[in-house]
Amino acid sequence: MKLWQKISAVSIAVTLLTMSTAVSAIIAIQASARRRADEEQIRSSIDVFCSNCVSAVSAQGGVYRDVTLQSMVQFYFSQFASVLRYENVYYSLSADGEYLFNLCPYDPALLSEQHSLPESTEEEPYLFRTLSEQGESLLVCSRSFTVSQSQQEFRVYITKNVSETERQITRYRLIGFGTLAFACAVSALLTALLLRSALKPIALLTKTADAISKGNYRLRTDCSSHDEIGQLSAAFDRMSEAMEGKIDSLDQELEQKEFLIGALSHEIKTPMTAVVGYGETLLRMPLDREQQMVCAGKIVEAGRRAETLSRKMMELISLTEQHPDGKRQFLVSGLVESLRSVYPQRVRFAVKAEFVYGDETLLYSLTANLIQNSLRASPGNTEVTVSIEEKGGFTVIEVRDQGCGIPPEHIQHVTEPFYRVDKDRSRKAGGAGLGLAICSRIAAWHGGTLDIESRVGERTVVRVSIPALTT
């Protein structure tokens, strides 16, 4: 059973129970009121009959024999009965077990005996309600009285046919429970429709979750409601976006690592082929001393190139992973002195900053790679200029050469691993195609950027901007 069906069933059951209780209580109150009205009418009538008969006889004065007294009571009773006559109300008078007056089609005394009516008193006349053989509902009230001149007891019966009252109560029940049935049917229909509509976002949420589990990470619920279900859908969408971003990041990282491994396998073939080729030449070919030295030199050169390639790859891979926070403020002069010791010629430094905030080892590697690229691309009689200065809250490291330049269509790709503008010239110069990729990663790790300006045949300017330390 679905959730909306369960909630509908519970809601309908609660509604039915509550409304049934309310309708039953209302019908019971109405029925009780109608019956009390009938009982009050008969009680008032029988009190009037008894008191008026006693008063009328007492007003005559004198002492009468029982027969005469009965005749007088019968006369006054019949007069009052004719005056107070109501439809379906019958008056009876008895004395010594015999009726003195009786207009009732039933025998009230016999009904009293059959249903064991309790003895009445002047304070509390008893009432009796029963069903006769004809299927009519009767309300019988009996009360006895005596006249002060005599000890003879008279008994008055008032019998009222209350079938109409009972039928009215039955109609109340039919109307009440019919209305209840109709209200419950309408309530059930509306509850089911409203719940199904209200719970549609949950169905959409389930469908979306199922689709996402099958790989459709871009799917969203886009629920616009402002209730708790809408809040749940919004939280689900935020979770989906975060998960999609994480999966995309993992996919990109995996794709990048696969590319790097594939590129490394491809790139390392060249030095390894040279090593194997010249090694087999040394083993199998009769060579003189000079030829052996040439082969050995080629093997050493290829080995060093493979070593450089491996070192660069390890450096690049380490930058793709979470790097320990080695940022600190250090003197620019120390960095420049270290670079001067490695590049004593053809490199001119222009320093206008005193401190740099970052990882000293990584920034040294970044600057060294830029210098190496510029020296490879520049003629031997030109200089490479390295400037370090502060501009607008950034430390800017700029390396400028007078080399062959980079064609515009290649600039956006030169920071990709193993990308070379001129592959033959790069290999001959000892480049692995990883320098600018490493520099770009180091700049990004520092929260900075790497920009390249170049004119073919004239110059290339590589500018790295990293945030300066703010206090």
Can you give a write-up of this model?
The chain folds into three domains: 3-113 and 123-173, Beta-Lactamase (2-Layer Sandwich); 217-322, Helix Hairpins, CATH 1.10.287.130; 325-467, Heat Shock Protein 90. Strand 9 (384-391) and strand 10 (394-401) form a beta hairpin. The chain has 13 helices and twelve strands. The chain has 471 residues and is of the alpha+beta class. Strands 2-1-5-4-3 form a five-stranded antiparallel beta sheet, sandwiched between helices. A five-stranded mixed beta sheet has the order 7-9-10-12-11. Helix 7 runs antiparallel to helix 8 and helix 8 runs parallel beside helix 13 (435-445).
Please state the oligomeric state of the protein chains shown. single chain
Helix percent band: 55-70%
Strand content: 15-25%
How are the strands of the largest sheet arranged? 2-1-5-4-3
Low-confidence stretches: 425-430
Number of domains: 3
Major beta sheet summary: 5 strands, antiparallel
Q: CATH class of the largest domain, please?
A: Alpha Beta
Shape, per Cα inertia axes: rod-shaped
Q: N- to C-terminal separation?
A: 63 Å
Return the structural class.
alpha+beta
Radius of gyration: 57 Å
In CATH terms, what is the architecture of the largest domain? Answer: 2-Layer Sandwich
Topology order in helix (H) and strand (E) letters: HHEEHEEEHHHHHEHEEHEEHHHEE
Give the tally of β-strands: 12
CATH topology of the largest domain: Beta-Lactamase
So how many helices?
13
Q: How would you state the average pLDDT, rounded? A: 80
